[in-house]
Automatic annotation (TrEMBL):
An annotated GO cellular component: cell septum
Keywords noted in UniProt: Cell cycle, Cell division, Cytoplasm, Septation
Name of the featured protein: Cell division protein ZapA
Subcellular location: Cytoplasm
Comp. bias intervals (Low complexity): 75-84
Known function: Activator of cell division through the inhibition of FtsZ GTPase activity, therefore promoting FtsZ assembly into bundles of protofilaments necessary for the formation of the division Z ring. It is recruited early at mid-cell but it is not essential for cell division.
Annotated stretches, region: Disordered: 69-91
Subunit details: Homodimer. Interacts with FtsZ.
The species this protein was found in: Aquabacterium olei
Length: 111
């Protein structure tokens, strides 16, 4: 297993990666970074952990809403998506933020 260094929202991470999976991992990191930066830039959240949880929820939502794509066409279809493309509507994001704030209200920790 190989290790690669990546940056998400300006923070460096050293991630384990199976041989031959570097490009897929870098694509995933780009998606997570784009999602987290979009949430941060909206100005509604400042805490990195809340941004990460909301980004994970948004990405999971997108995955459950998308029909499975054949492996050959998936890479070409995802290549040139503009930042923020495919995000849920702002009302959905606001609702998630409220639910997240409520869940974290007691001690600031999700788990």
């Amino acid at each position: 297993m190989k290790q690669i260094e990546v940056s998400i929202m300006g923070q460096s991470y050293l991630l384990g990666c199976p041989d031959g999976g570097e490009e897929r991992l870098r694509q995933a990191v780009t998606q997570v970074d784009r999602e987290m930066c979009a949430i941060r830039d909206s100005g509604k959240l400042k805490a990195r952990e809340r941004i990460a949880v909301l980004a994970a929820l948004n990405l999971a939502y997108l995955l459950t809403d998308r029909p499975p794509a054949p492996a050959a066409t998936q890479a070409s279809a995802e290549g040139a998506a503009p930042p923020g493309a495919g995000l849920p509507p702002p009302e959905y994001i606001d609702n998630l933020i409220q639910r997240l704030d409520h869940a974290l209200d007691n001690d600031g920790h999700l788990i």
